[in-house]
Amino acid sequence: MRFLLFILLFSLSTLSNAQIRNVNGGIGGLPSRNSDPNDTLAKLNKAKNKELLAKAPIDLYKIYTLHKDTTYVDTSLTIQSEYKYNFLRKDIFGLLPFANEGHAYNTLFFGLTNKNVFPNFGFQAKHVNYLEANDIKYYSVPTPLSDLYFKTVMEQGQSLDAFLTVNTKPNLNFSIAYKGLRSLGKYVNNLTSSGNFRFTSSYFTEDKRYFLNAHFTGQDISNQENGGIVNPSEFELSEDPFGERERIKVYFTNATSLLKGNRFFINHSFKLKKDNPNSLVFTHQFNQEYKFFQFTQPTINSRYGNSYTNSINNKTRYNHFYNKFGIAYKTKSYGDLEFFMDDNHYNYYYNSVVYNSNGTIAIPNSISDRINMVGGNYFYLINGINVKLHASQSISEQSISNIEASADYSFNQDFKLHFKYQKLNSLPNLNYNLYQSGYINYNWFNNFKNEKVNQFDFSVQSKWIDISATYKVLNDYLYFDNITNNIAILEVKPMQYYNTINYLAVKASKEIKFWKFALDNTILYQKVDQSNDVVNVPQIVIRNTLYFTDYVFKKAMLIQTGVTFQYFTQYYANDYNPIMGEFYVQNETKIGGFPMMDFFINARVKQTRIFLKAEHFNSAWTGYDFYSAPNYPYRDFIVRFGLVWNFFQ
């Protein structure tokens, strides 16, 4: 990461110097004695253009998604900047991080979990930091732009995210970025080491008939897995020597998990007619991805039962090949209508099979399938109303479908409405149906039913309050469960719940400002109606931030300082299983009911934002009963700092 930082800073200085040399056509900014007057004039005009570009407004630095949702580079210092200053670089309200940076996140807000119509690879606990195709951003900038994120970690390491983008032409953009993390952690065998490389390119022809977005990602997420602490009393008393967390006994001292993947992605379109607003558009999307999840443990542990061998090396591989072809008719007055067909081919496999005692195959080594779907999209935007419709249905053997309808309406900048409905019939994630392990109890081959989801989302944004509500009806819900009902002995299996689950969530947010003070409030209420405790959630989740903002040093620096209070009610939180990289349902141990208080001082100087935070500073005097999951303590008090630095060349 130090080498990458050096290369980034060197590239920035080179770009900057190159622009200075080109201003007047000579070395050091001086014109050449032998230069042609017309050429000199052209260069002077070019210099004026460069001067204008140097003062380009911030809204010319555009960031957009695959679905053309556009935002702009934000160098301001707001309370949202504080919320997004974390490893995931987004507001993590509803997620509860583990003790070490980048290890895992427990889910407090069940509304954050979304299903896909196609079967996913699985191992979801390890995918929080894995960038999917829809997570990649594309850019359009008038001058080179870079973004540097740095933050200290728990022990011996750092977190860095370095990014650079440039438009070599107005219609051609490239970006390159790398996010790296290394953190030893406070507990034994808890090292985190990860890297997320991404490269993007965007292009369109001058007549704007052809558009292309493409990217490549290479990602690896490695965690030492200690299985949690053995004796919670050692942590909850926190008396010498257990105040030093490395003295607390953990289950594993040599286990490691690794998620690694590479992806090539292309999305492009061609408009048939150049000037006619009513025209046919041909679209194509291509996605090729390979990844694997591996769990290694040189010495077996009795917590997971008997094993086939004296050491464990579970490696699950996945190949995914996807093509989507579409034809759309764009109109000026009646919206855009698109029809498409996609081809989804995957191979999920191991290098061995498991035999019964009679020599027959008990657990096969692969699941391979090809899914073809047809569907359509409709988009309509007029007078502040934005309507989107989607419908798709499989035409191959699998019975899957997806229907979505959403509408947005903006009365004005202060009042917006959003509504969305989805009816989904989706295939199970692949690790529900097939898994192999060196531990005997962790081998299965199933044929579960499709999951069915009916979901309603509604939100109101106003200057008085922001409210959002989610209502889900789940049928044939899939989950992992410890069938021994004993937290000390884990035999986790995939299960399917054949009754109906009704889930309701209401979230309200409001920021109250007075003079230079502000109080930002967010509260979440959740309720689940079910015959058995399968979906467990805290009923109440709260976050309140009281902070002060002002300019200092003759308005050269903007400072922001305050306290954030977070709390969630006690509930039977899902526990974490490192062998599968998944959370599983348990109903034996409750966590929650403890306050989490952070004190922060942030500052902004030009395009640099500096962050200093005392995290969970109340931990020593409100009791050591804080957990992210049963047997996995939450973070102790720690002081961390860092910065986000934007360069506009």
Written overview of the protein:
It is a single chain. The protein is mainly β. It is 8% helix and 52% strand. The protein contains five helices and 35 strands. The strands form seven sheets. The chain has a 22-stranded antiparallel β-barrel. Strand 29 and strand 30 form a beta hairpin. The chain is globular. The N terminus is likely disordered.
Annotation field: number of helices: 5
Ends apart, CA distance between termini: 23 Å
* Overall SS class: mainly beta
- Arithmetic mean pLDDT: 90
Tell me roughly what share of residues is in helical segments: under 10%
Which features characterize this protein?
8% helix, disordered N terminus, three-stranded antiparallel beta sheet, 649 residues, 22-stranded antiparallel beta barrel, globular, 52% strand, mainly beta
What are the SSEs and their pairings?
Elements: H1 2-22, H2 37-54, E1 62-64, E2 70-72, H3 79-84, E3 95-97, E4 105-107, E5 138-140, E6 145-152, E7 158-169, E8 172-183, E9 192-204, E10 210-225, H4 232-237, E11 255-271, E12 279-297, E13 312-330, E14 336-349, E15 354-355, E16 361-363, E17 366-382, E18 385-394, E19 401-412, E20 415-426, H5 430-433, E21 434-435, E22 444-445, E23 451-462, E24 466-482, E25 492-514, E26 517-529, E27 540-552, E28 557-568, E29 575-577, E30 582-584, E31 596-605, E32 608-615, E33 627-629, E34 632-633, E35 638-648
Antiparallel strand pairs: 1-2, 1-5, 3-4, 6-7, 6-35, 7-8, 8-9, 9-10, 10-11, 11-12, 12-13, 13-14, 14-17, 15-16, 17-18, 18-19, 19-20, 20-23, 21-22, 23-24, 24-25, 25-26, 26-27, 27-28, 28-31, 29-30, 31-32, 32-35, 33-34
